[in-house]
Every structure is written in C-alpha cells, then in structure tokens.
C-alpha cells in the first residue's frame, strides 16, 4: 500500500505559539485535589490555599512551619516574625480529627492466599516437621526447597497464630485417637 502524502515530512515548529501562557492558564484553572476528607469538608473555595490551610491550623510550607536550627546559631531568633505572623485557628476541629485518626492503631489488612494456607496445612498434616520429606512430596508443584517450605510455614504461623495452634492441637488429638 502506498504511504499517505506528507507524513514522512518533518513537522515545523510554530514560533508564534506561546506555550508558557497556555500552560499557566491551564494550571490556574485547576483546583487542588484534596485527599483528606476532613480538609475537603472544611475547604472554602472562595479563599486561597494558604488562607484555607491557615484557618485549619495546617502549614502551607513545612520549611517555614518548622524553623531550621542553623538560623538560631547565626543570631536570628525568628521569634519576632513568628509572633507577628501568628494567626488564630478558626477551624481547630480539622486538626483534632486528623490527630485522632493518626493516633488509631493500624489495622492489618495482610492475608495469605487460600492456596498457600491449604498447601501449608497439607504439608504439616502429612509430614509434621520433616521439611526434606515435604520437598519430595508430589503436591510440591513449585519444587520448593526445604528452606522455602519452612519459610512458608513460618509466614502462616505469624499471620494466623491461633489458627495454627488449633490445627496442630487437632493433629495431636487425631494421633492420640488412632493409637
């Protein structure tokens, strides 16, 4: 098939187009994306970003919020400017809610796959603590080495300690019933 006419030619640069102005105007129109729900609800679109953050007691620039220790050594305290520029916090509930949320303990959302749990339980049930036997088992599809199997069992122990103890106790009970 023949090529489209003019496609192989180099495109010319347009010197008359001011790309900086286009970029700046697009940036000016964009609103800040606010991830925190507390800040989003307290946000006033009529105010600037700096005013909104000051009303909530948050810092716009972390470098200005926390003074650098080197400036104190030069003899400039910075206390004069900070006392003049101090603003009252109009919306302290935002800061309080954020501090409360940060103080909550983190919920563990890590889980193991059902396949890995079944694999580990099968290995323990049939071989006990003999990792070399586990490595030779026909259900060892991924050809894990004894150390890899031991590591998987330890991961299972750490994720589900109560379930592991109950499982081992049930295995001991079965052995006693058989004897």
UniProtKB/TrEMBL annotation:
Write down the superkingdom of origin: Eukaryota
Q: Does the keyword Plastid apply?
A: no
Q: Enumerate the PANTHER family for this protein.
A: HSPC111 PROTEIN-RELATED (PTHR13243), NUCLEOLAR PROTEIN 16 (PTHR13243:SF1)
Where does this protein chiefly localize? nucleus
Task: Indicate the family of this protein.
Answer: Belongs to the NOP16 family.
Q: Name the UniProt key words of this record, in alphabetical order.
A: Nucleus
Tell me any Pfam family this protein matches: Nop16
Q: From what organism does this protein derive?
A: Nothoprocta ornata
The name this protein goes by in its record: Nucleolar protein 16
Question: Which processes are annotated in GO (biological process)?
Answer: ribosomal large subunit biogenesis
Q: Which GO terms describe its cellular component?
A: nucleolus
Q: Which InterPro entries match?
A: Ribosome_biogenesis_Nop16 (IPR019002)
Where is the protein localized?
Nucleus, Nucleolus
């Amino acid at each position: 098939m023949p090529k489209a006419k003019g496609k192989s030619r180099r495109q010319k640069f347009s010197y008359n187009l001011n790309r900086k102005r286009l970029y700046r105007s697009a940036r000016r129109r964009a609103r800040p994306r606010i991830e925190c729900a507390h800040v989003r609800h307290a946000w006033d679109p009529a105010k600037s970003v700096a005013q909104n953050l000051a009303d909530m007691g948050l810092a716009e620039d972390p470098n200005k919020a926390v003074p650098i220790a080197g400036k104190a050594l030069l003899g400039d305290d910075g206390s004069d400017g900070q006392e003049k520029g101090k603003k009252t916090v109009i919306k302290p509930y935002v800061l309080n809610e954020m501090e409360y949320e940060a103080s909550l303990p983190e919920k563990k959302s890590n889980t193991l796959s059902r396949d890995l749990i079944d694999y580990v339980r099968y290995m323990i049930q049939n071989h006990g603590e003999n990792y070399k036997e586990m490595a030779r088992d026909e259900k060892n599809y991924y050809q894990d080495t004894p150390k890899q199997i031991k590591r998987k069992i330890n991961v299972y122990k750490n994720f589900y300690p109560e379930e592991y103890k109950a499982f081992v106790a049930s295995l001991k009970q079965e052995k006693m019933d058989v004897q």
